[in-house]
């Protein structure tokens, strides 16, 4: 099931129209129509808004769509509870995860430096 089919399923469950979802989400109807009718992929931010409006988390949105492990579901559920600022922090961490070794070594170096008496 793709994003448009999942949205249609959720709209059907709530008895909402595309216009009702757009209104409740504070999005333009054309934005929601482009996702549902044209199959355009929404941005993460738009998908978060739609999920929040529908009363589900992103993890729940994809839970029926993809076979996620319990760890992946936990990560998505936890991510969904974060503030926007903390979400950006997590996104930056995941983008730069390969640099963690350097970061860990830098923190270690800074800790040693701070402990030195001059």
From TrEMBL:
GO molecular function per UniProt: DNA binding; DNA-binding transcription factor activity
GO cellular component annotations of the record: cytosol
Record flagged with keyword DNA-binding: yes
Source organism superkingdom: Bacteria
SMART domains recorded: HTH_XRE (SM00530)
Entry-linked PROSITE patterns: HTH_CROC1
Keyword Protein biosynthesis in annotation: no
Record domain HTH cro/C1-type: where: 7-61
Keywords, in A-Z order: DNA-binding
Name of the protein this chain belongs to: DNA-binding Xre family transcriptional regulator
Lineage, uppermost ranks: Bacteria, Bacillati, Mycoplasmatota, Mollicutes, Anaeroplasmatales
């Amino acid at each position: 099931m793709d994003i448009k089919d999942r949205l249609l399923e959720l709209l059907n469950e709530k008895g909402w129209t595309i216009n009702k979802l757009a209104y409740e989400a504070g999005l333009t109807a054309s934005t929601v129509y482009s996702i549902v009718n044209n199959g355009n992929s929404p941005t993460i931010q738009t998908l978060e808004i739609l999920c929040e409006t529908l009363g589900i988390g992103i993890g729940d949105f994809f839970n029926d769509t993809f076979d996620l492990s319990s760890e992946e579901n936990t990560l998505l559920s936890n991510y969904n509870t974060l503030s926007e600022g903390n979400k950006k922090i997590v996104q930056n961490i995941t983008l730069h995860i390969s640099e963690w070794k350097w970061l860990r070594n830098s923190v270690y170096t800074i800790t040693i430096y701070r402990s030195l008496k001059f």
